[in-house]
Amino acid sequence: MRQIGKWSRLVIVTGLCALGACAGHSPFDIFVDSTKDCAEMLLQRDIQTVAKTREQRFLGKVPGTTARCLGGKHAEKLREGPWLDWPNYWAAGDATSLAPARLLANSKVIGPNAHGINGALYELEVQRIELIKFNLFDNNKTYEAYVTGRDGEAGPVLNTWPEMRLLQGHPDFKSVGGDQTQVCRGELIRFRTLTGTCNDIRNPLMGSTHQLFARNVEFDTTFPDLGLNELTKNRHGDRLGLLKPDPQTISRRLFTRTQSQPDRCRDGYGLPGGAKEAACEYKKAPFFNVLAAFWIQFMTHDWFSHLVEGHNRPEWMAVGCAAQLVKNIEQPLTGEDAKKLGCRPDDKIDAAYIAEGTEPRSFTQGDKTYLTRAPKTTANHVTAWWDASQLYGYDEQSGQRVKRNPNDPAKLLLMPVREGEGEGDKLGYLPVFEAGDPINPEWSGQEATAFPDNWSIGTSFYHNVFAREHNAFVDAFRKQAALTPDGDSGLRNPVNPDDVIRYRDVTPNELFEVARLVVAAEIAKIHTTEWTTQLLYNEPLNRGMNANWHGVFAKQEEVADALKEVVRRLDDTNDAKKANSLYAALAGGPGIFGLGNRVYDGVPLVGLIDPNKEDRWDLKNDDHINGGVNHFGSPFNFPEEFITVYRLHPLLPDLIEYREWNKEPNVIRHNVPVIETFRGKATEAMRQKGLANWALSMGRQRLGALTLQNHPQFLQNLKTPRLQSPTQQIDVAALDLIRDRERGVPRYNEFRRQYGLKQLTSFDDFVDTRLPQDTPARREQAQLVNTLREVYGQHPCDSSKKITEAQLNDDGSPVNDCLGHPNGSLIDNIEDVDTVVGWLAEFRRPHGFAISETQFVVFILNASRRLFSDRFFTSSFRPEFYSTLGVEWVMHNGPGPEMMEQGTPNGHEQQVSPMKRVLLRTMPELAGELQTVVNAFDPWARDRGAYYSLQWKARTGAEGDEAFGSGQAPSLLAEPPR
Ligand code: HEM
After folding, report:
1. Ligand 1 pocket test: which of 731, 732, 855 has the largest number of ligand atoms within 8 Å of its C-beta?
2. Model pTM?
3. How far apart are CA 72 and CA 173, in angstroms?
4. DSSP 8-state code for residue 814
């Protein structure tokens, strides 16, 4: 535990706590508590600060005094093991985590509950700052400058890179400046461009289609299978390979959902006609619905794709079902073994694309040698921006798939294909691909949209919803234009920045692009403030995510403005890492969204808290347009590791419990296999049954918990005609492991160390020791640990072998192969565990976390970075780009003034959620069903109960809903009460 001086502690706590982490509470509350534990914590200087070097990182573990101050004796006791400590603090769980009623326990400002939440937020902020400081590794040849600096400027504050210039031959090469300094201007900066260029006006190429994925881990820890250096060899011996341990064996033993009535599930293919008798059991998360599962697939299609037009490299390779470990020795699988496991040795898949596979150059700085990039790189074949490219396109071909309404090209084409009883049906449905559209043959029959791969009822749902939303915005804009044709739309053209653009002057094409900006921002807001707060359903994260978006001072505009200005000017400081740390921390004050979109004269903090001050933001000023972005010294793209933690296939059920909104919503009418809605069948199912019925069905159903033995069977047995193999089937769960291995993701334990989390020392660490021994959950966890041991094996350890440089043992010695066990003892091959398997095996989680803490740290870093780096979410979130109506639409979740939710859910006044508003606009017939819904991703008929309850209990009016019939099934991820 590092310790710091009194004054620096005060500054950091005040800075972080007041301006970012502590969500509007007094910065000094942590100091004025009179309890003995907190006094002791302060006296002993046990407050964590940002680490100076990688191996000194925080790791989320605190001393006993801190734990006692922030969570009582309970929190102190639970510090055993590798897991984060803040989830044990006061008020970080459900109602049982609130401090017992005593003086100040209910205070929002001081007292134990406030301390618990603020302490958690403080630790999360320290972690985020450390992640920004230690985990940015760009593959685009900018990393050397990041380490060594350039022209006297330190690497972490560099904000333009020659590697991010457009190359000769690019159609816009000349327009941005050609061989001279490149700056995007004019038409190129008005809207989101098709391929994502010119988002950052001085780095035209950044985030655009086909740019390389970044990394969040040190380059020499990637591609462990290749054994390229001593540490990797020491860590894994000769135990790893592309198909070693066998991925299909892992899938069948560790991923398969067990079925008590397999003939009613039939490998996830259910029964003909969506018969209700079909049954595929799965482990369910009570606080997250199937809409949330498909939402995240819809998001990933916007953010990243390794595939090009649904294909990989045309080189067919085997995918396992060939071997297993028997008593730590690899043995071939016999036909009988394969049959017993249920895997298929004849499956084949096309190999992953590799962008560069030549040996990377290295360089030296100080006494350390670095690689300039990972040993192999891969490219992101869609834009990395949150620009709704899955709807609107990311290159010429995908753009051609998007159909506009010929009668009003500002709109997307929607067809009146269904005579439903709902108002929403009149808004129409997406058209189907036609002959001549540039698509893969397997996509024919599907709705026409830019990203058509892995289409199902879920993706069809969101594409239709947001096409309707796009058109709803266009309609509202046109309505306003009809009322005030000569009024100022707020829009400006950077080519003639001083010319007012009246409503009547806005062309259909311009309006289309404005609607795209608005829809993309709405999606980002839904994701940040609604989806994520339900994914991470507890108070610290609710405050943290809202602070990311609205800022801590959402209701105090002057303070927020002042802080925006402070943050904007921090960019000018040359104290590299410090500036980045402060920037990240302070940005929580005003919120990342809209950072830099107002510019004021005067002295920050003093002169700026003046309601009459004048906004000087100017479209003629490049620094104003671009001034809100911060890339922290490393060009933005997602890291390869991000894709790994989004391999969320267990979220999907095999069967959808189909209901109808206008009959009796409590009745499940059919069990429709998801696979029966795959590709073109999704379109049929959508048109036959209608958007609102699917919304209701997926809104009420719980999604699958992210844990072991919970992958959908249909994905393990996915029939895919394009595959050149005897089976034409693929196990997507096994493929998830193979792809990560092909792309060099470090295995689980080093992955955690790299992200500043504590390593595990055996498989037993996965067991949630808070649960009593004799509970079903604890017994199942122990069984799974045994299976992990059988599948990954054990080896006699050698303490002379150092295995990592990312962390040290508590006594400062290097971490070695024995992980603290005696030399020569048989230890678990925990180092070899595939990262996806590892995070699925984390049975102990923060309260209300649908994901594990390992996934979570990856999100902390990258979720805020994709906001920080995007001009359209920061300094260009302005009426000049979005129109006045567009800005209001994003801020208020739709047309008109802000609408507030009834009551105070979990103690907060909140806007009617953005997704609920979208659903109400696009399917007005659901108004009754949605009345009690506070978060569109919480199962709609669940009683949310008191403070962050996870209970599976019907709300009033849904008592007859069959889904609540059997009560709450015992869960592998059970949480013990405090
Ligand atoms: C019907 C539903 C789905 C189907 C049929 C499906 C199918 C697939 C397939 C076949 C691949 C492998 C592509 C390859 O590497 O060759 C894949 C990759 C992937 N899937 Fe799914 N998936 C579905 C739903 C989901 C959901 C709900 C998520 C949640 C986030 C998800 C996340 C991913 C990710 C992150 C990848 C890796 C993509 C990449 O490498 O760029 N999928 N999926």
Report:
1. 732
2. 0.95
3. 61
4. B
